[in-house]
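Researcher: I'd like a candidate sequence for this fold, 337 residues long. If you have to choose between options at a position, lean toward the conservative one.
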C-alpha cells in the first residue's frame, strides 16, 4: 500500500458519515488506538503480540496515513525501532532478538519507504538497502539470502527463511520489497511469474502452492505479484472476479473462501484484487461500507474482525484500506498492490 501524507492528531469531532448515518470514528482510531501502539508496554497484550511487533507498526502507520494523520506516531521512534530489529546479515526480525524472516523484512522495507527513510537505512542500518535485499540469512550457508537468495531458481517460488517453507505470500513479499528498493533485477521474475501461473485453480483463484485450495489472501498475493511484474494479462479476469464476488455475504461482509464467515480483513484482500483487475464494481459497495463501519469500537477506537469482537491493529488497517478502495470520504487513496 502507499498513500499521501497529512499531519497532527485527529480533532475530537472528526467523523465522516455514510448516507445511512454510520460514522467513521477517525478521532477515536487515531488518538485512542493507533497513537498508543508503541506506548502500551505495561499491558500483557503488548508482550503476547511481540512476534507481530514490526508488522503491527507497519499496519498502524499505514492506517494513520490513510486517515491523514501520519505524524501521530513519532517518525524518529518508528525508524529507531525498525533498525533495532535488523540482524548483522541485513534482514529483520519481528522485534529485537527475534529471528529474521522475509515477512518481517518486507514490513521493515515498507515502513522505511513510507517514512522516506532510505537515507537513514543506508547511514544507520547494517549494510544499507543493498544488504537488505541480498543479506546472508544463514552464516553456514552464505549462498542463502532472504529477499533475493531465498528464491528457488528452479521453481521460481520463495522460502520465508532458511528453514525452507514456501508460500505465495513469501513470493509476493519478496517482489514487493525488492520493487520498493528498485532491485527486482536480483531475482528471476519470469520464473516467479511461471510459479504463480502454476498456482492458479480451475475457479480462476489461487492457492499457497500448486494444487492448493483457493483463498482470497493468496489471490491478493498472486495478483499483487503479477501487478508488480506487469503481467496482469495472464489473469482470467472475469473468472477470478466471479469467484471473488461470491465472497460477499448477505450482511455485506466478505469471507476468504466458500462456507466461511465474514471478516473485515477481506475488505482488503478481496477488494484490492478486484481493483487490480478492474472489477471493483462486481460487489455491493454500500453494503460492504456499512459492514466495515459496524466493526468499529466507539470507546477504544480500532476495528474488529466482525461487530462486537475485540479490536486489533491488523483488522483496523485492512478495514480502513477497504474504505479507501471504496472511495469513502475522509480516507486517503491507497495503492491496491
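Model: Candidate sequence:
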Amino acid at each position: 500500500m502507499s498513500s499521501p501524507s497529512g499531519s497532527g492528531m485527529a480533532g475530537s469531532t472528526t467523523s465522516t458519515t455514510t448516507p445511512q448515518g454510520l460514522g467513521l470514528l477517525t478521532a477515536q482510531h487515531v488518538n485512542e488506538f493507533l497513537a498508543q501502539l508503541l506506548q502500551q508496554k505495561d499491558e500483557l497484550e503488548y508482550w503476547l503480540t511481540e512476534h507481530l511487533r514490526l508488522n503491527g507498526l507497519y499496519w498502524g502507520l499505514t492506517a494513520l496515513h490513510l486517515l491523514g494523520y501520519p505524524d501521530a506516531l513519532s517518525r524518529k521512534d518508528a525508524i529507531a525501532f525498525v533498525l533495532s530489529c535488523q540482524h548483522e546479515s541485513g534482514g529483520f526480525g519481528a522485534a529485537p532478538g527475534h529471528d529474521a524472516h522475509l515477512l518481517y523484512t518486507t514490513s521493515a522495507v515498507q515502513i522505511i519507504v513510507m517514512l522516506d527513510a532510505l537515507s537513514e537505512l543506508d547511514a544507520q542500518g547494517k549494510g544499507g538497502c543493498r544488504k537488505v535485499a541480498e543479506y546472508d540469512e544463514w552464516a553456514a550457508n552464505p549462498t542463502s539470502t532472504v529477499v533475493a537468495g531465498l528464491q528457488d531458481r528452479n521453481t521460481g517460488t520463495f522460502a520465508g527463511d532458511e528453514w525452507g517453507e514456501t508460500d505465495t505470500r513469501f513470493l509476493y513479499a519478496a517482489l514487493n520489497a525488492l520493487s520498493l528498493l528498485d532491485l527486482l533485477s536480483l531475482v528471476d521474475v519470469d520464473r516467479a511469474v511461471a510459479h504463480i501461473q502454476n498456482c492458479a485453480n480451475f475457479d480462476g483463484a489461487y492457492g499457497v502452492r500448486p494444487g492448493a485450495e483457493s483463498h482470497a489472501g493468496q489471490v491478493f498475493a498472486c495478483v499483487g505479484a503479477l501487478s508488480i511484474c506487469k503481467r496482469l494479462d495472464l489473469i482470467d479476469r472475469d473468472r477470478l472476479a466471479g469467484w471473488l464476488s461470491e465472497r460477499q455475504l448477505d450482511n455485506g461482509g466478505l469471507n476468504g473462501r466458500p462456507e466461511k464467515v465474514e471478516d473485515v480483513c477481506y475488505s482488503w484482500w478481496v477488494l484490492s484484487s478486484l481493483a487490480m483487475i478492474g472489477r471493483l464494481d462486481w460487489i455491493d459497495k454500500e453494503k460492504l461500507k456499512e459492514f466495515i463501519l459496524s466493526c468499529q469500537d466507539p470507546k477504544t477506537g480500532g476495528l474488529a474482525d466482525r461487530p462486537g469482537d475485540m479490536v486489533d491493529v491488523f483488522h483496523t488497517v485492512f478495514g480502513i484500506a477497504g474504505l479507501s478502495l471504496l472511495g469513502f470520504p475522509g480516507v486517503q487513496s491507497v495503492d491496491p498492490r
